Amino acid sequence: MNTTKPNNIDEYIAGFPKEVQQVLEQVRATIKTAAPDAEETIAYAIPTFKLKGNLVHFAAFKNHIGFYATPTGHEEFAKELSFYPQGKGSVQFPLDQPMPLDLITKIVKFRVRQHLEKAVKK
């Protein structure tokens, strides 16, 4: 794992072993498909997608991918996420299991709708 702060998501992903890079690219592509207008960036030193504010974040760890769609993404999908370990504001998708890409898609689309509705109200 790379210890220097990445400037973009490509640099972040490049800092991990090949098998983890593949999983990170899957998660990234899933988010991009679900939120095609979102901007990719690095925030809090991890990959972040923004659309009128922070949409979702993700990060690689030794044994899992951390996914952050707080607070509302986690609240809305609490039942589906209950099968995974969770921390404050995060859910952990184990690296030794298939990534729940369909669930990630649903969460991201939910967050997109929320952000766009909020922006219209302003």
Structure description:
The chain is an alpha+beta fold and 122 residues long. The chain is 43% helix and 24% strand. The chain has helices at residues 9-14, 18-34, 72-76, 78-81, 101-121; strands at residues 39-43, 46-50, 54-60, 64-68, 86-87, 90-94. The longest helix has 21 residues, at 101-121. The mean pLDDT is 92.
Secondary structure category: alpha+beta
User: Widest sheet: strand order?
Assistant: 1-2-3-4-6-5
Largest sheet composition? 6 strands, antiparallel
Which percent range fits the helix content? 40-55%
Average the pLDDT over all residues and give the rounded result. Answer: 92
Fill in the CATH topology.
Aspartate Aminotransferase, domain 1
Q: Specify the CATH class.
A: Alpha Beta
Cα distance spanning the termini: 41 Å
What are the main properties of this structure?
122 residues, 6 strands, 43% helix, alpha+beta, 6-stranded antiparallel β-sheet, globular, Aspartate Aminotransferase, domain 1
Short synopsis of the structure:
This protein has 122 residues and is α+β, with helices and mostly antiparallel strands. Helices cover 43% and strands 24% of the residues. The chain has one domain (9-117): Aspartate Aminotransferase, domain 1, CATH 3.90.1150.200.
Which helices and strands, and how do they pair?
Elements (H helix, E strand, L loop, with lengths): L8 H6 L3 H17 L4 E5 L2 E5 L3 E7 L3 E5 L3 H5 L1 H4 L4 E2 L2 E5 L6 H21 L1
Antiparallel strand pairs: 1-2, 2-3, 3-4, 4-6, 5-6
Helix pairs in contact: 2-5
